[in-house]
Design goal:
Elements lengths: L4 H15 L5 H16 L3 E7 L5 E8 L3 H4 L4 E2 L5 H4 L4 E3 L11 H6 L4 E9 L2 E10 L7 H32 L5 H16 L7 H12 L5 E2 L4 E6 L2 E6 L3 E3 L4 E5 L8 H13 L5 E4 L1 H9 L4 H4 L6 E6 L1 H18 L5 E6 L4 H10 L4 E8 L11 E3 L9 E9 L3 H11 L5 E9 L12 E5 L5 E2 L15 E4 L11
Parallel strand pairs: 11-12, 14-15, 14-17, 17-18, 18-19
Antiparallel strand pairs: 1-2, 1-6, 2-3, 4-5, 5-6, 7-10, 8-9, 10-11, 13-21, 15-16, 20-21
Helix pairs in contact: 1-2, 1-6, 2-6, 6-7, 12-13
The structure holds inosinic acid.
């Protein structure tokens, strides 16, 4: 089992040759993993990158490991061999018994015995790891460790080069970007590099674009959930399309016709039973088309504007509810000054009526943002606050919260200014379609999963002037058109 200096030398020579190639980050890392595993005569190798908030590790290159082992989900940086990220070399003699291993049962079914892990350090801090795996118990020599550390140093250069490349590209695309985006962006850099070149379905690519627009980090198919076993053998698995790490939610996007959904729903029910801690959401073809239609995209976005089908809330009902909301707000902020902030243009009617009913002193500020345009940009604040909100009590006033992505973005932006408090008041809450669980402190009405217009809300720029809130004609959002 002795590994000669010569084999390590030629492996390093091969690895350094690809580092500067035009290959993608994933291909380079896979090549490094393969050459490392072969030179060390181990059964598998995995190169992992740490996200910027140091919460989880993503696989960026692998060799010799099964799909099941790789798709056991993003590794929690605090639970999965945290010593490596402290800058230490970690040796696990028996992965099936060692309590430092996050998924020992999977290690067992995959026949993994020993693991050696070293940190990938960038400017003195851990930015990733390399781990090698053997099927037979194995001790590693000093030469093995020092070879793996050299490979880790090469990986650090590869990672940093990828980040730099990505940053330059982003800067070119979007000249102005919010601070929050900058910090979360760095964590998403490697993800961006790693995104699959081919999605299984075009709607997945559209969904990824939408998430990118709202700066929501995502991983594509990072985890498979075993659903059925025959003895030790897994005979059925389910791999949701996306995982959104910041929101800790898995998303399954289905392009099946509504009537073929039974099988998928069965699998989702099973996941919920077997893995109660896991949050999985299903977005159907119709849900997704409605989401895109909001921005004038997708099959529904093309439809002709027909008219309002029925009134959901009359002007009198809206005014009554606003008076109640205003009473609650005035009571909660008694003796304080309040800054009301709204986003143009949907909020104008609600903001105007709400502020007239408040009995406390308020100032008002309005922001504007760019909405999803399907062109791969990111959400931008096109009109920022006029005055500083640092140390002020702030109430964010919204017309409608749907997926919650807009509000989530805006709250991130506002909290960066350190207000004394930050709460949310929305006239309408379309809870059924929530993707991001943003806290709502004051809610006017919970509305059904329908496209609503009027009282400031538009469809393709029209209907804002209606004094009531109505549901857009169902012809426009007709399910049959999608099937
Ligand atoms: P979210 O980011 O998905 O929560 O979307 C919020 C924004 O989408 C709102 O501020 C509205 O501009 C728009 N929106 C969501 N649902 C509707 C609707 O039913 N009618 C009109 N606009 C909507």
């Amino acid at each position: 089992m002795s590994r000669s200096r010569g084999s390590y030398y030629s492996a390093l020579k091969r690895i350094t040759r690809v580092v500067n190639s035009a290959l993608s980050l994933r291909k380079i890392c896979n090549y490094i993993a393969k050459n490392t595993a072969r030179a060390m005569q181990v059964n598998g190798c995995r190169i992992l990158s740490l996200n910027a908030r140091k919460e989880y590790l993503i696989t960026v290159g692998t060799y010799g490991l099964s799909d099941l082992y790789l798709k056991k989900g993003p590794l929690d940086a605090r639970k999965s061999l945290p010593d490596i990220l402290e800058g230490k070399i970690v040796f696990i003699a028996d992965a099936t018994k060692d309590e430092r291993i996050q998924h020992p049962q999977i290690a067992q079914t995959q026949g993994i015995a020993s693991i050696l892990g070293v940190p990938v350090l960038g400017k003195g801090e851990a930015i990733g790891e390399i781990r090698v795996y053997t099927r037979e118990p194995r001790k590693f020599s000093e030469a093995d460790k020092s070879f793996l550390l050299s490979v880790a140093n090469i990986c650090a250069v590869v990672f940093e080069r990828a980040e730099l490349h990505q940053l330059l590209e982003q800067d070119y695309k979007t000249q102005t970007r919010e601070k929050r985006r900058k910090s979360s962006q760095v964590s998403a850099l490697l993800n961006t590099h790693l995104r699959p070149t081919t999605f299984a379905h075009p709607s997945e690519e559209d969904f990824a674009k939408l998430l990118d627009f709202y700066c929501i980090e995502w991983l594509y198919e990072p985890r498979s959930f075993p659903l059925k076993w025959e003895g030790d053998k897994i005979v059925e698995m389910f791999t949701p399309d996306f995982y959104l790490p910041e929101l800790d939610v898995y998303i399954e996007l289905t392009t099946l016709k509504q009537n073929l959904l039974t099988e998928k729903n069965r699998k989702l029910r099973q996941i919920r039973q077997l893995y109660p801690e896991v949050n999985v959401k299903l977005i159907t073809k119709n849900d997704f088309a409605k989401l895109l239609a909001k921005y004038g995209y997708g099959p529904l976005g093309e439809a002709k504007v027909e008219g309002v089908d029925r009134v959901l809330y009359s002007h009198a009902q809206i005014q009554r509810r606003i008076r109640t909301l205003s009473r609650h707000i005035s009571r909660d902020y008694a003796g304080q000054r309040l800054v009301l902030i709204g986003i143009l243009k949907g909020v104008v009617c609600f903001m105007a009526d709400l502020m007239q009913n408040l009995s406390i002193p308020v100032t008002v500020d309005l922001m504007a943002i760019s909405y999803y345009g399907g062109d791969g940009q990111v959400v931008k604040i096109t009109r920022d606050l006029d005055s500083s909100i640092t140390g002020q009590h702030v109430l964010m006033v919204e017309d409608i919260v749907d997926t919650g992505m807009t509000l989530n973005y805006i709250l991130g932006h506002l909290s960066a200014h350190n207000p004394a408090s930050l709460r949310v008041c929305t006239l309408l809450d379309k809870r059924a379609r929530r993707l991001v669980n943003v806290p709502l402190d004051y809610v006017g009405f919970e509305v059904p999963d329908e496209f609503v217009v009027g009282y400031g809300l538009d469809y393709k720029g029209e209907y804002r002037n209606l004094p009531f809130i109505g549901i857009l004609h169902p012809e426009l959002i007709k399910d049959d058109e999608l099937q």
